Amino acid sequence: MSWPTFQQLKYLVAIADTGSFGAAAEEEFVSQPALSAQIKELERKLGVMLLERSARGAMLTAHGVEVVERARVVMRDMHDLIETTKHDGKQLRGHIALGVIPTLAPYVLPDVVRAFTAAHSDAELHIRELQTTHLLESLRYGDIDFGLLALPIGTDEFVTAPIRIDNFLLAMPENHSLAKGKTPVKLEVLRNERVILLEDGHCLRDQVSNVCQLAFSEPSEIQATSMATLAQMVAAGLGVTLLPECAEKVEAGPGRGIVTRKFAGQSPSRTIGLVWRKSSPFSDAFDELCSTLSKK
To answer: pTM for the complete prediction?
Structure first.
């Protein structure tokens, strides 16, 4: 049997990602005829048609979809094989990619970067901001080495480790009736409030929605695209929100027009943690990083 080459599989994945032979050839730094010839050879070796060609581009066949899915796994495993050369025990070196969700990036990421660079001075940390679904997909296929996100993630496919609990605070405009108080408020106060959420795709939206359900509160239809926008909408008097404690200094600091109150009793919260592949050669280093961060 004639086996497909790694390069052929890589070209196929590039076509699947870009949608055309031309764009894939440009991404892979190869001529379009050369790339096309390799795909034809791959189809010959496998005995199936992988792509439907048209003037508009290329579309995967049913066989193509399956082969691309398996090719991504092969590429991920090859990535991990190469990555084994980038560490000496727990000391990492070379290019290391970290994914982080937007609701943590401005607030917790600096601590992670400082701890990582202090432990791995020879490593070059590259950071990508991704929503949870895309972060896990990037991790699955080896585009990133580990991630910083909110736990749990709803699957046991990866290794996860908590680093801190992030309590939610009630955030309101300065002229709100509850703004002058200092004592913690009950969760039930949400029933009489317009609670603003982030837009779909942010895990924080789902977490806050769950808290609203516990308080029998119906969230507002108003949505924000980012934590910064959410804070500005609250300051403008459009409603209140549940602000993660990690974001308080940045989004509700002096002069921002926002007042925060803690919740009484067991405060609603989220767990912040790291995630990485079970097959990662860097597992020991990531474990050590979690241990360092959890002590902060």
So the answer is: 0.77
